[in-house]
Each structure stands twice: as structure tokens, then as C-alpha cells.
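Regression test attached.
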Amino acid sequence: MATTSLAPTRVPQLSRLQTIGISAAVIGIALLAVGYFVVGPDQFCRSYLFGFYFAMSFALASLGFLMLQHLTGGAWGVTVRRMLEAGALAMPVMGLLFVPIVLATFPGTMGILGLSHPLYQWADPAVVASDPGIAHKVPWLTPEFFAIRSAIYFILWSSLALILRAWSIQQDRTGNEALRARMRMLSGIGLALYVISLTFAAFDWTMSLDPHWFSSMYGVQYMVSSGLTMLAFLMLMFTQIQGTEIFKAHVSVKPIHDVAKLMLGFTVLWTYVTYMQYNIIWSGDVAENTPWYFVRTHGGWLTLVPILMIFQFFLPFFLLLSRRRKQNASTVAPIAALIIIMRLVDLSWIVLPSFHESITQVSWTDFAAPVGLLGVWLAIFAWNVQRASLLPLNDPNMEWLHVGGH
Amino acid sequence: MQASNGIYGVMAEFDSPNALIEASKKAREAGYRKMDAYSPFPIEEVSHEVMPGDTGVPRIVLICGLIGASTGFITQYIGEFIDYTYIIGGRPNNITNWASMIPITFELGILFAAFGAVFGMLALNGLPMPYHPVFNAPRFERASQDAFFLCIESADPLFDRGRTSQFLRGLNPLQVSEVAN
């Protein structure tokens, strides 16, 4: 194994991606700012939360897969590690972007944003006083505890992302073999904490928009669907970087095939958790659980359901069954693009009906916010990918790329 | 198996998976098609060389899976909505109830697909097979332990007892031997 220090890989496509990210961030956030005055502060905050939740799925899945591949090893892991590190490194910035949501939650600070009611119903003392169902949950759902919990999530995720990146860069410089074991150890602990914290974050940020409703599958659904989003994004990235010298020298078709296989697996997993949550609640037929689905199947929201079934399950599933198609990043890329678009549709169906009774009430800022906030993540991602070698060549796991097997 | 040759084929033994990958690649480039490789564990690159393209199993699995899924759905449909139309727990007993029938549909789909994979693979391999000529090759029992074999069969149009042995010897094997029929 080489122990020479590795230089950052210059890829023109990535600097173009960075420009696209910055442009999307500027345009999206500028439109959102205009929206603040056009559609009002309430709608502004709702759109912002929705956009944040969508962009956050990329950052969270980057961190999750980063720790997973440290634990499992394998050719696909070393191939995508630098991209996962870059995506996870956005975590501190995502934490800063969460501040407006905290401000909108405290009755004392929501005035700064011009709100007359807090973003979350449970933060409104008047609602809590008149609704015993919500009052029952108040020890957990208070603005203070909500803010503390979110701070803990972001400190945890940022630390994991920064430490794993620092060790990985150190490995690039020194080739120290002990670092692999150290990264694996941290990932083992980190992944357990990650699953717990992500589940609670999903409960806090969007499940609590309907404070009466609860589903233990909600966090898993967010985790799995974020994973699917990130795998599709990685596949799109393969089409951009597979022509680089370093990629051609080290990466065969196998890691691309593996990521495509994972896409197929996660497509089925998304369908499974999404369907099982529905089936359990439908079968149970309990009055406090069914309203969440009632709202999402009325007021025009039902139209998104067949669209999701066809374009988030049936079409990608049957297209990804073909082995030959999965072995070529260019033929998987259109499916990956479809999956990312459908991820946005799925999150719209999950989050937006809490704000809009009818699908026709969806505001244009609900489109601007995901573009702007994803742009921020994309710019950070592209910037960080270019700051290191595209492959961690000094990692002992690189041997996976050069021998038969996974 | 051509009787004129009198043998099943020529077998070369290699000491590493990479040597086997290299040899199967070269044999394919030389134009040989009727060949097979034997190794203690599956090597994807080798199967790509000795048997490129579709094995036929994926299609059997897909068809069996679809048959299983439709069997699951249709039997539930007949049972619940035609023969025994009981209203249970106030739920509608018509097709709007389809989502509740998905678990069985899914499970029968998986079950039939798995049967298709196992039995389809056995059938396409011609198993069970009490006798196979490759076991006449010396040291062949090591193929399930630590040795890697490539056999070019006499059924190949390019096969020639002398020249094929010569060719395999040029691939740096541990040994080359003829395999009796």
C-alpha cells in the first residue's frame, strides 16, 4: 500500500456542480425571502421547514452510509466514501440553518420572524390549554426541550462527521493502519446513536406537526427514504466522475453495480415501511391514528398516492431488476433522477398536508425552499469533495477494489 | 461430446483466483466458448468469461414470482369477496380492501420466486447428476478446497487435443491434464 500523501482530485464536473449548488441556494433562498413578504411569515416558516427536512435527508444519509461502510468494508464503500464524507460535513451548517425553526417555535422569539402563532401547535399555550390530548404530551413537547434535543442531534452528527473526516484525511497523509480500526470503532458506536437520534429528530421535526398522531415507524421511514435519496444521488455522481483518471485506474464496474443493487433494495425497503405503517394503522382502525391518513387521502392529496406507487415503487423496481442495466451508471442515472424527484413528492405528501387541507393551497414557496436548501447542501458537498483525493487510496480497504469478491 | 476426440476435455489447474481470472480471459480471447471453471468460491469475473450473458435463472425467478404473487392475491380475493363475504371489524369486503391482501401476495411472490431460483438452478445445471467426467481429472477434489481449475471441453469447435493442451500450458498453470469421458 502506498503511504505517500494524496493530493486533492480536480474534477471540472464537480466545480460545475458547486456553481449549480451555489446558484440554486441563492435563487431558492432569494425566492423564499420574496415569499416572506408575498405569502406571509406563517407560510414562509412552513415552507422553510419542508425544504430543510428535504435537504437534511441528504446530509443524514451521507453520515449513515459513511458509518455503515466503515463497518462493512467492501468495494462500494471505499468508492463512495469521499462523497459520503463531503455530504456529512454539511452537518454544522445544517445545524445553523435549523436556527430559524427554533426561533419559530418559541412564543417569545417567534415575533422576530413576524409570526403570530408558533410553527408547531404544541408550542402554543392556548392550544395546549384547550386540548388535553396535546397537554398530555407537553413534558416532551416543550419549546425548550425541543431546542435542547435538536442541539444534541446536531452536536452528535457534526462531531461524528468531522472526526471521521479528520481521521480519513490523516490516513490519506500518513497511511497509518491503526486509523481503520479507530474509524470502525467510532462508526459502530456512532451508528447506534445515529439511528436513535434520527428517529427522534423525525418525531420532533415533522411527526409533531400533528401532535395527536404517532407512529413508531415514522423515523425508520425517514431513515430508509433518506438512504434511497442518497444512493440515487451517488449514482448521478458516478456519471460525473467515472471519467476521471483516478476512477478509471481503480474502480471497476462492481462498485457501481453494488450501489445500483442497494438502490433496488432500498426501493423495496421504502415500499415496505411506507406500506406497513399504513397497513398497521388501517388494520388497527383506532381513532387517534387514522386522521393522519384521512387528511392525506382527501383534499386532492390522494392523487399523489398512485403516483408514488407507480413511480417510487413499480417503475424503479422493475427497471432495476435487469442486471445489465444496473452495471452501467449512465443507464441507472435516469432512474436515479426519477427516484430523487419522487422523494420530494413523498416528503410533500408526508409533510405538507399538515399545513394545507387541500393540495391546491400549496404555495410556490414550498417549491422554492427545497431548491434553496438543497442548493446549500450541494454547494458544501461539491466543495468538500474537491478538497481531498477522490478515493482514499491509502486505506487498507482499497484492496477490495483490486481483488475478486465484494 | 465428440466421440472422435475420445476425451471430455483438457483441464488446467491454477494456484490463485487471479490466475484463473487471467486464464479464462485469455481462453475467451482465443475463441474458446465451451469451457467451464471450478473454484472453491464463486468468482464473478470468471463466470463472466466462461459463461457470459444470461443464465436463464433470472427469468424463471421473475415468472415464478409473478405467478406466486397473483396466486396469493387471487386466492384471497376469491375467499374473502366471493365465497365468504363476511364483514370483519367494519372493513369493506370489496376491492377497496386490496391493501390488506398485500402481505400474503408479497409472501407468496417471494416463496415462489425462491422455489424458482433453487429448482430452476438445479434443473438448468442438470442436477442431480450421479456421474460427471470432470471428476476424472487428477486432484479435482481440491476444487472445493484450495485449487482453481479451467476446463476446455472437447465439444468446442476450436478444440484440438494437442493445440488446446499447448494453449493451456502457455497460461502458466500448475498442471494440465486430459479428462477421460
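Expected vs. actual: identical. Chain B has a mean pLDDT of 84.
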